[in-house]
């Protein structure tokens, strides 16, 4: 599709004990190797050891991107279960102790930690990142970029509202609805 915006997604998860849901203290390197193999290289370690990131391929269609993201979540979750772990998709872990989190051993992360210091040590955060490639960056207008970011934020907010509405409906005993 000529001139289409292609996009890719990166989603970060906490690795937690499958039973207690406490952030994993020691994640075996074999887990990352197995997850990388099972996902055909579509995972990466994150800044802190109890985190993992899945990386989608480039897409032009949201339905295909969602399907791939679901597949990557299932894949990582299945591998994690073999190690007594589970994945938790949350902005921050509700009971994690930042002092217990170990930095991933990687030169890039050493540099980040050196730059951020205390902020880096307390970085128990996960997120979903959407990277968009402009079809013709030389012709892109500065005013188009905020519109694109706002569109992505609005779409995510609508997804969140649908989840909240569905949860409220279930709590009230009402049938599920789709916004």
Please give a structural write-up.
The chain is an alpha+beta fold. It folds into 2 domains: 132 residues, Creatine Kinase, Chain A, domain 2 (2-Layer Sandwich), CATH 3.30.590.20; 39 residues, no CATH class. Helix content is 41%, strand content 17%. The protein is built from 5 helices and 5 strands, in the order E-H-E-E-H-E-H-H-E-H. Strands 1, 2, 3, 4 and 5 form a 5-stranded antiparallel β-sheet that branches. It is globular and about 45 Å long. The model has no long low-confidence stretch (mean pLDDT 76).
Brief descriptors of the model:
2 domains; 41% helix; 179 residues; globular; Creatine Kinase, Chain A, domain 2; 17% strand; alpha+beta; five-stranded antiparallel β-sheet; single chain
Mean pLDDT: 76
Supply the helix-strand structural class: alpha+beta
Major sheet size, sense and barrel closure:
5 strands, antiparallel
The portion of residues forming beta strands comes to 15-25%
Assembly state: single chain
The CATH class of the largest domain is identified as Alpha Beta
The total strand number stands at 5
Q: What is the straight-line distance between the termini?
A: 29 Å
Number of domains: 2
How many individual helices? 5
3D shape: globular
CATH topology of the largest domain: Creatine Kinase, Chain A, domain 2
Report the radius of gyration as a whole number of Å: 18 Å
The CATH architecture assignment of the largest domain turns out to be 2-Layer Sandwich
Helix content: 40-55%
N-to-C SSE series?
Answer: EHEEHEHHEH
């Amino acid at each position: 599709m000529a001139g289409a915006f292609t996009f890719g997604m990166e989603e970060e998860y906490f690795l937690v004990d499958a039973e207690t849901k406490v952030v994993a203290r020691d994640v075996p390197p074999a887990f990352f190797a197995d997850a990388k193999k099972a996902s055909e290289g579509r995972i990466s370690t994150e800044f802190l050891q109890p985190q993992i990131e899945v990386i989608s391929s480039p897409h032009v269609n949201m339905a295909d991107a969602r399907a791939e993201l679901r597949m990557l979540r299932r894949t990582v979750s299945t591998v994690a279960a073999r190690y007594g772990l589970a994945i938790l998709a949350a902005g921050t872990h509700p009971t994690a102790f930042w002092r217990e989190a170990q930095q991933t051993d990687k030169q890039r992360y050493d540099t980040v930690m050196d730059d951020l210091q205390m902020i880096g040590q307390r970085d128990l955060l996960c997120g979903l990142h959407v990277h968009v490639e402009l079809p013709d960056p030389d012709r892109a207008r500065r005013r188009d970029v905020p519109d694109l970011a706002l569109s992505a934020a609005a779409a995510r907010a609508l997804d969140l509202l649908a989840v909240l509405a569905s949860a409220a409906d279930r709590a009230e005993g009402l049938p599920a609805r789709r916004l």
